[in-house]
Amino acid sequence: MVIGEAPGAEEDATGTPFVGRSGKLLDRSLSELADIDRSEVYVTNVVKCRPPDNRTPEAAEVKVCVAEHLGREIEAVDPEWILTLGNVPLKAMTGKSGITKHNGGTFRRGGRTIFATLHPAAVMRNPTWAQAFAMDISRFGRMVAGTYVPSRTRVLMCRTVDDVKILRRHLMRAPELSVDIETFVRKTDPPYVRTNFQDFHGDDSLIASISFSWIEGMSVVVPLWHVSSPWRDPARILEYLRPALERDDCEYGGHNFKFDQRWLHSKGVMIPCGWDTMLSGHMLDENRSKGLKNRSRAELGVDAYDVGEELSDAYNMDLRKLVVYNAKDTDYTLRLRHRDADALADQPRMDRVFRHLMIPGSNALVAVERTGVYIDPDRWATRYETAVSNRDKIYDYINRKFVPDDMRPINFNSPQQVGRLLFDHLGLPVLKRTKKGGRSTDESVLLRLADQHVGATAVIKYRKWAKYVNTYLGPLWFEHRRPDGRVQSFYKPSGTVTGRLSATGGIHQIPRDPFIRAVIGAEPGWTFIQADYSQVELRIAAMLANETRMLRAYATGQDIHMNTAVSVTGKLAADITKEERKKAKGVNFGFIYGMSWQKFVDYSFDSYGVKVTDEEAEAWRNRFFETYPALRPWHEKQRRLAQKYKRVVSPIGRVRHLTDIMSSDKDVRSEAERQAINSPVQSFASDMMLYSLIRLHGMMPRDQARIVGTVHDSILFEVRDQYLDRWAPVIKNVMEDTAHIERTFGMEVTVPIVADIEVGTHWGETEAYIAA
Known about the structure:
This protein is of the alpha/beta class. The chain folds into 4 domains: 2-145, 3-Layer(aba) Sandwich (Uracil-DNA Glycosylase, subunit E), CATH 3.40.470.10; 154-346, Nucleotidyltransferase, domain 5 (2-Layer Sandwich), CATH 3.30.420; 375-478, Taq DNA Polymerase, Chain T, domain 4; 488-536 and 632-772, Alpha-Beta Plaits, CATH 3.30.70. The chain contains 29 helices and 24 strands. Strands 6, 7, 8, 9, 10, 11 and 12 form a 7-stranded mixed β-sheet that branches. Helix 22 crosses helix 23 (578-591), helix 23 crosses helix 24 (597-608) and helix 24 (597-608) packs across helix 25. The longest helix is centred in the last third of the chain and has 34 residues, at 666-699. The chain is globular and about 80 Å long. 42% of the residues are buried.
């Protein structure tokens, strides 16, 4: 039995499921990949009627259709196997949500086997998923035919001291080692144990078990702080194994190995990373799922092995289940490591990026995370109190001044209530609709309504201060602050498809407003430094396009925004106002990647607060490309490369795969074309920053200077006051040193790279560094 989501237009017209383009793809895939004929399959949908505007069926609709129709169909057909296509049938049949997380997974329900994969329509819309869909259908066919033999892992558990001694002897000889840990945080209050994967500091952050694999198909697991652990003092066991985990002649690795490193470092085991299958998998195909279970199912053909919710209590769960789960993690990771190593060997430039940037970058970022940034407790207390006070005053003002009695007090977390206030009570126009047809009250809408009514301005101010309290200041202190008073971000080298670093927690998303940023700074006796690449994306775009006018401007130290302002306004430089230069900045960053003039109108207002008419936007776009004529041919070249090769490559060899260029959806194709232009630029900018971070991290003695974070194109440091004049010039020189990156990656940087160095006591309150 095959279960889809809901009828499309053709299905709705004929009353037959899967007869359109997605049905043809399904039939062809079942026949060619699974050796299953459509005539042997009962095909249906969860929802029997086509939802309005072809939207996704809502939960209430699914519930009714399952009860009234689908459940009866299943009873009548009585299938042994059910193939679900997309998230709606996955949720309806298993209660689980997230098809990109569960695709390729199997579930047993009511004596039947349910196999989940993507919907064919989603594959046609985003061809990125075509390979995963094909692999799923192929494995499903083998399972139905009885020819699928899941891979096995031989699991050994250390129960005695002699077992651990034997293990250490093997670990001391292994040339490579796959390592994985299962963790928990013990609390003294009920429920006594909780999982918080980021909370690795303190005596209550413990490792339930650690697994090792150095031969494919076998894993050895050592229980540590588990309720059934055989050891009185697990710390001594880990200390005994430490020399085998800190060798210089072994390549240690895992999947998302930064996580394991953080926890092991907190227990005194300074294990280095030599490889990471999350990073290698990301390098080889940044579009596919990076999760170990998904990769193992799709590429190794193994069964799903998640132990489910029990893992949220790794301390109390059945030890045998924990050990088997932990063992499969390291075994499958080692197998993927070997596959990835072979694949990277066939692509030398990509392999060089992996070995010289991704792996050393991951190691350096672990150290940066452990250092964290300092929060000034006095600054924080004062500004948190101010933010709370401002939020509450504006809340009271809005309720008193604008909200009618029957709506008071208003819930600003409810878009419906805010919409009633703005559009029904205050009579403001509806400027935009949400995907579900509701009246949008997002920030861009409120900014446009602010000129029409003071009530909209008040809502903007309330949301600003509420966000400062709830999203920034509150979490910084109450959630992310460690016992040592510092805050750490968790950086993800594989967090974006373009290659840019992303981060969770900490400081990465903090706005530029000094009111927020300046609660972060340097400890007493230290100076805070922000080293920021100046206009780095514009510089790299000029280099890749070989735009001679831009290159000449940068080579001679001209102000590129002023040059653009002169060009688009027709004025002399002496007559350009600050507002006009600000508009030109928006022009540069807006059109450099080929933005349309229609989108520029909104972009200019939302990003820079600059109002631009349609006529101005269209004229400025034309003048921009007349001023920098090499940009348009570069854009067209990138689009042609994407269409021909389904990928583009950065200057150092990082690949952006763009199979979505073949999408049936025009908007998806357009996005792929945009990615073809901006991905090489953004990834190279981020890679230059990471490469500088690696080099600086290796140079700096921690008692003199240390990296505390990175945000976008900048690196943040703390330097002891007496060493400021020593390290500030070094930071600038390293970040501007393109010769080193040219030698490492075999390319030439033809545009000057400039790093602006600012110093001070607090972030957001820094000034340009002037050598003593």
